[in-house]
Amino acid sequence: MKKLLEIFLSILTAMGGFVEIGELVFAVNAGAKFRYSLLWVVLLGTIGIMVYGEMSGRIAAQTQQPVFYLIRERVGYAAGLGTLIAASAVCLLTCAAEIGGIALILKLLFGGPYRLLVVCGFVFLVLAVWFLSFQWIERVFGLLGLFMLVFVFAAVYLGPNWPDVAKGFMPNVPQLETSHEYLVYGYFCVALMSSIMLPYETYFYSSGAIEDGWKPSDIPMNRIIVIIGFVLGGLLAVGLVMMGAQLFMPAQIEPQLPGTAALGPIVTFGRWGMILALLGMFFAFGGAAIENALSGAYNLAQFFGWPWGKYRAPKTASRFNLTWIVIFILATVIIITGVDPVQVVEYSIIAAVVILPFTYLPTLLAARDKNYMGSHVNGWFANVLGWFFFIIITLAALGAIPLLIITHGGEG
Amino acid sequence: MGRPANKRRLLIQAAASTVIIFGLIAWLVRAETKPLDQNELKIEIESLRSYANEAGLLTEQVLSAKVTRAFFQTQTYLLQDKTESSRTSLETDKVQPGLEGKHWQSRQLATQLKSAVDGLTVAFANREEMNRASTDLKRISSDLKQLEDSLK
C-alpha cells in the first residue's frame, strides 16, 4: 500500500512538474499561431522525454550513476567539460527566467515593485531548498503545480473541435501563406519540442533516483512513473496548445506573458480561474527554478566527483550546497537587471536543444551497454526508440539557431 | 602527433573561430542597422495589433469583474512597456524606399495605442472610462489589421 501511494505521488509529481515558463509561453503561442497543427510535436516531445527519462532513471537505479558521471566517463574530460559548461549556462538562464516568472506571478497576485518581488522569490526558493527534504521539494512543488490543470479544464470548456484536435496529433504541415511562415512553423516545432525535452528534467530525475535510494528492483516503478506521469504532464501541454488555438487565435493575440496565458482560465472561470492559474504557475515555475539550481549543482558535483545530495548533511556536501546557492544568486542578479524573463527562457530553450544530443548520447550508449547494465540493458524496442530520438534531436539541434535567426525568434 | 602538426591544427582552429566570430558580429551589426523591409514592418504591426487585442480582452474581463486590481494593473503596466518599446523602435528604425507612408501610419497608430493603454492604468474603477478605452482599442486594432493586410 505504501509503495502504491509512493508511485501515485510520484506520478502526480512528474505531472505537476512538467510545465515551466518556457513551455507555457511556447505551447500557448503555438496554438495561437498554428491552431492544433503542432499537437503532434507535443506528442513527439513527450515520448522523447519519456525515452530519455526512463533510460537515465534505469541507469541510476541499476548503477547508482547519474547523467554527468556518464558524460565524463563516456566522452572524456575535455569534451565532457564543454558539455558541462554549456549545460550549466542553460540551467542558470532557465533558473533566472523562472525566478522572473515567479516575481511576475507575485506581482499579478499582490502588486508591488517587481525587483523587490524578485528578491522575495529568491529568498522563498533558497529557504525551500534549504529546509525541505528532496522528497518534500518534489511533492510540494509537483503537487501544487497541479493547479495548472485549470488550463486543461479551460481548454475543454472553451469547446474544442475534437476531430481537428485528433488530426493535430498526426504529423502535418498546415497550408500557410508565405515560405517565411513555414520557417516560423519549423521554429515552433523545434522550440516546442525543446521546451518539453529540456535536459535539466533528466539531470534532476536521475539524480533524484539516487537521492531516493532507488535499487534495480525499482526499475519497473521508474517505468510506470515515467510513462504515466509524463503522459499526464504532456496532457497539460496539450491543454495549453488547445487554449491558444481556441481563445487567442480567434482574438488575434500572440501571448508573450504568463499573465496573458492566465486570461484563458479567467475568461472561462472568472476570478477563481485567475487564482488557480496563478497559483499553478507560481508552483510550476518555483519547482522548475529549484530543479534548475539543483541540476546545476548535481552536474558540477557529479562531473568533478564531489560529495552531493540533499540527503547529506550540508557540511558533508558543502561544495554542492554552495553551488546551488550561487546559481540562485546569479540567476537573481541576471533577472534583477530588468531583462525580460520570457526572452531569457526563449534563448535558453534554443540553447538547451543545441546541447541536448551531447547529454543524450552518453546516456543512450550506457543504457545499451550490456557490461554496464547487465540484465537491465536496453531491449530492441528501447534501442530503436533511443536512436530514433537521437536523430530527431540532432536535426533539431542543427536547425535551432538558424531558425531562431531567420524567423526573428518565431515572430515572422 | 608531432609539435608542428599540433601548432598548425591550433592555428587553423583559431583562424576558423575568428572568421566565425567576426562573421557573426558583422551579420548582427548589419541586421541592426539595415532599414526595415516589408516583412519586418509587418511583424512590428502584428505585435502592436496583438497588444491592442490583448488590452481589449483584459478590459472586457474588468468590465465583467473577473480580474483583481493587482492583476489588471500589472498586465496593463507590462503592455505599456511592450507598446512603448515597439513605438520607440518604429520611431528610430528606417524603412526601405516605398514603405514610408505605411511606416508613418504605423507610427501614428503606435502612438494612439500607447495613449489608449496609458489611459487604462487609471480606469480600473471607472466603468465609463473603461468602455471608452475598449472602443478605442477596437478601432486601433481594426486600423492596424488593415495596415497589416496592405503589407501582404
Q: What is the secondary structure topology, with strand pairs?
A:
The complex is a heterodimer of chains A (412) and B (152).
Chain A: H1 2-16, H2 21-34, H3 39-63, H4 67-75, H5 77-110, H6 114-131, H7 134-144, H8 149-157, H9 162-168, H10 179-196, H11 200-211, H12 219-248, H13 258-261, H14 263-304, H15 318-336, H16 341-367, H17 370-373, H18 380-406
Helix pairs in contact in A: 1-7, 1-12, 2-10, 2-12, 2-16, 3-10, 3-11, 3-12, 3-16, 4-5, 4-14, 4-16, 5-6, 5-14, 5-15, 5-16, 6-15, 7-14, 8-12, 8-14, 10-16, 10-18, 11-14, 14-15, 16-18
Chain B: H1 3-33, H2 38-63, H3 69-92, H4 100-120, H5 127-150
Helix pairs in contact in B: 2-3, 2-4, 2-5, 3-4, 4-5
Question: Could you explain how this protein is built, in words?
Answer:
The complex is a heterodimer of chains A (412) and B (152). By secondary structure, chain A is mainly α. Chain A has helices at residues 2-16, 21-34, 39-63, 67-75, 77-110, 114-131, 134-144, 149-157, 162-168, 179-196, 200-211, 219-248, 258-261, 263-304, 318-336, 341-367, 370-373, 380-406. Chain A has a single domain, classed as Amino acid/polyamine transporter I, CATH 1.20.1740.10. Chain A has 18 helices and no strands. In chain A, helix 1 runs parallel beside helix 12 (219-248) and helix 4 packs antiparallel against helix 5 (77-110). With 152 residues, chain B is mostly helical. Chain B folds into 2 domains: 1-33; 36-150, Four Helix Bundle (Hemerythrin (Met), subunit A) (Up-down Bundle), CATH 1.20.120. Chain B is 83% helix and 0% strand. In chain B, helix 2 runs antiparallel to helix 3 and helix 4 (100-120) runs antiparallel to helix 5 (127-150). The longest helix of chain B has 31 residues, at 3-33. Classes of the chains: A mainly alpha (412), B mainly alpha (152). At the A-B interface, helix 5 and helix 14 of A face helix 2 and helix 3 of B.
